[in-house]
Amino acid sequence: MQRCDLPHLVRCVVRRLSTVTRWHRLRRRAGTLLMTSPAGERAARHDAADDHGARRIVDRVLQQLDMDVAYLTEFRPGRQVFRAVRGDGGAFQVTAGDDHPLNDSLCRLMVEGEIPNAIPDLSADERIRSLDDEFAGSAGAFIGVPVRLADGTLYGSLCCVSREPKPDLDHRDVAFVQLLAEFLAEPLTGWRDRRVARREIEQLLDSDAMIPALQPIVSLIDGRCVGVEALARFPGSGATPEMMFARAREAGVDERLEHAAVAMALARRHRVPRGAELSFNVGPAGILASGLDALLRAYPPLSGLLLEITEHVSVAEYATLADVLTPLRADGLRLAVDDVGAGYSSLRHVLRMAPDVIKIDRSLVNGIARDAAQRTIVTGIVLLALDLDAETIAEGVETAADATALTDLGIDMVQGYLLAAPTVDPDEWRTWETPWLLPGGRSDRSRAPSSVRMSS
Fold first, then answer.
1. 70: left (phi > 0), else alpha (psi -120 to 50), else beta?
2. Which stretches within 66-147 are classed as H helix?
3. Could you tell me which residues come within 8 angstroms of residue 281 by beta carbon, excluding any fewer than 6 positions away?
4. pLDDT (mean) for 182-189
5. Which domain holds residue 360?
6. 148 by DSSP, 3-state: which?
7. Is residue 137 within 8 Å of residue 146, measured between CB atoms?
8. How far apart are CA 341 and CA 357, in angstroms?
9. Alpha helices (H) in 95-158, listed in sequence order
10. Which of 28, 136, 183, 254 has the fewest CB atoms lying closer than 10 Å?
């Protein structure tokens, strides 16, 4: 067996860091495909990259220690699952994916300190030979260490066995295996987090725990409610919508959650004030995922619907998005680019999408009455909208002064707490039939529901 003296251990670490670099390269490569792949495929790519990194670590243990089998196990209640098996697993009747009892396993005994991390000769210990373990009765030597996730939670074990005893197996070999086990924390934590998030999202969808909150979009011309945005809320979950959708993206089920939110919004279409559009948010992955076209066409007509494209990663292939959206837009669906001025919603993105509506992010709206730079930027967006024959909506309007400034700049519509907060109350939705009297607007029909915050 190759010895793990200090210089050799340093060389091993250098080679391992090279392996880690390649693993991160795989993760980055997967990330570049985030937009163009369905969410489930994206999760599979992340899982595959993490699985590849874990297998390389197990391979390194096997090669360095000159053992016959190296394996990574995950501990579950009363069971251990073999997540990766490298070497001659068939000789010990184990393969990746096997699920074996945990209680009498060498791995559990090692993790709990009942046996040493390294046992050069298993045949010398009668207690071990009597265990109901796939390796105890047929292996000659054993070495193993606990594996922990990034937060310190015990995940399982990283172990090796050989057919023959290994008399020179000692603490230096244990230190080497422990070093490599620490590199497993990141990929295994990714596996764990995605699995937990998938389960949470699946349970949420099965339990109908998502409810719609609606918020009016009001014309600055006459104070009428010309649109209603449907927003998902998750009462009782302890998570904000942003947190919930972020977890769904990481788990690879964001298109399912988005489509469920769209279906929920479309089912309330009859609640929208007469003549108002119903708008809803869908990201690029949700647009590309199968089923969106059929979902939208199940609630005809497409006219009167406004799809707000949201972004959490940059769009790589606009042509692919256009292939999906063009027939829908031809049949009446309108398109908005959301959060312009923040994140990935750059002016180049607006030009490529050629939307019907440009929604200006609240970061450019809040305080615009007293900020000349914000007014200059918004003026540029208004001019762009005119060139594109698009309308503008200012999000996050909270003060009468800002509403007046937006009117002076030529903004078409506003949305925000000045008018109404998002609400799940259908009684509140019904009040939106009556126009608002807006500061700086041209409406002569006065009406102020309790949720509107007006100043004189």
1. beta
2. 106-111, 126-129
3. 229, 231, 258, 261, 308, 309, 310, 338
4. 88
5. 208-433
6. strand
7. no
8. 14
9. 106-111, 126-129
10. 28
Tally of structural domains, the chain: 2
Q: Is residue 43 part of a domain?
A: yes
**Residue 167's pLDDT band (cuts 50, 70, 90):** very high
Whether residues 370 and 338 fall in one domain: yes
Pairing of strands 141-148, 118-119: antiparallel
Calpha distance 55→183 (Å, rounded)? 12
pLDDT at 45 over 80: no
Residue-level length of the chain: 456
Q: At what angle do helices 39-65 and 241-251 cross, to 10 degrees?
A: 60
Please state the pTM of the whole predicted model: 0.70
* CA pair distance 147, 72, nearest whole angstrom: 9
Least confident range of 2-6, 63-67, 321-325, 373-377: 2-6
Q: What is the pLDDT of residues 277-286, one digit of tens each?
A: 999 999 998 9
Q: What is the SS3 assignment for 86?
A: strand
Strands 334-340 and 79-87: unpaired
- Within 8 A by CB and 6+ apart from 427, the residues are none
Q: What is the CATH number of the domain that holds 41?
A: 3.30.450.40
Written as one string, the DSSP assignment of 159-211 is EEEESS--TT--HHHHHHHHHHHHHTHHHHHHHHHHHHHHHHHHHHHHTT--E
355 within some domain: yes
- Which CATH number goes with the domain that contains 354? 3.20.20.450
| Separation CA 37–CA 287 (nearest Å) | 11
* Distance between CA atoms of residues 12 and 158, nearest Å: 17
In a domain, 443, yes or no: no
